[in-house]
Design goal:
The chain is mainly α. It has 4 helices and no strands. About 70% of the residues lie in helices and about 0% in strands.
Length: about 55
């Protein structure tokens, strides 16, 4: 949460494939980790709940 804005995180959660195709930062992370984040097929509300949970950590 300190490295990325909430909007970016939400986009990565909800639009994983598009972010990995178009976002330079997401592509850089993929190159470093070599593991593609799976699309979880979460709704906006579910993704927001994940984001809010991440804020508590």
């Amino acid at each position: 949460m300190t490295k990325r804005k909430p909007e970016w995180i939400m986009n990565m959660i909800v639009h994983t494939d598009a972010m990995l195709e178009t976002d330079a930062e997401a592509q850089k992370m993929l190159e470093e980790c070599l593991v593609r984040m799976p699309n979880q097929n979460l709704s906006q509300d579910e993704a927001r709940q994940v984001l809010e949970f991440m804020r508590t950590l």
